[in-house]
Automatic annotation (TrEMBL):
Pfam families: Response_reg, Trans_reg_C. The modification 4-aspartylphosphate is found at D54. Residues 5-118 form the Response regulatory domain. The keyword Isomerase does not apply. Residues 131-230 bind DNA. The keyword DNA-binding applies. Residues 131-230 form the OmpR/PhoB-type domain. This is Response regulator transcription factor. SMART domains: REC (SM00448), Trans_reg_C (SM00862). Keywords: DNA-binding, Phosphoprotein, Transcription, Transcription regulation, Two-component regulatory system. GO terms for molecular function: phosphorelay response regulator activity; transcription cis-regulatory region binding. InterPro entries: CheY-like_superfamily, OmpR/PhoB-type_DNA-bd, Sig_transdc_resp-reg_receiver, WalR-like, WH-like_DNA-bd_sf.
Amino acid sequence: MNKRRVLIVDDEKEIADILRDFITTEGMEAMTAYNGGEAYEKFKSFSPSLVILDIMLPDNDGMEICRRIRNESDIPIIMLSAKDTDIDKIISLGLGADDYLTKPFSPAVVVAHVKAQLRRYMSTNRKSEDEDGLFIKNMKINLKKHLVEVDDKQIELVHKEFEILWLLASNAGTVFTKEQIYDEVWGVDEFGEIGTVTVHIRKLRTKIEADPAHPIYIKTIWGVGYKFDDG
């Protein structure tokens, strides 16, 4: 998957724009739409990785847009509503939505839900040559078995090392900050030292790189973070 893209659909422009700003600060691309017709057009042209969709739109019911998107794609859909009613939740989830948030909400909470949904989606929809593995350069990663091979040699990784490797490799080319890696692997609700990311990547490199001082897989982007190089 390339850089993650989020389409935000809400007729309240201020809400849509705030969510866009929060999402882009997390290293994702974001585009806004303020009505159903615009939403569907941008879904087709922008090819988002996830859609945030308000139920109440001026020209089209958000649930109808949800149904149309779900008929064409399995990307995560997060529904927004000013009404905290079970019937709206039931209908939304029945149409294929993956999550449901009630207004008012904190933009940071929405971002956490976006990241969680993308993480789940990427774990089951990854670029691979078969349903079990990811193959890049001379590396094979088997997600189901948590196995890694480099040049046909099995590499023993601890759980967090594997999760970091999978996060970077399944988003090859995308730069992640230390904070993003920590949130994705340890979770937004965990409290700890961001420096543990550096420690885990250093250990990971000693296991997968022929020359850890000159890595070919996990590259440091100075002043930003890390990326998995698939070139």
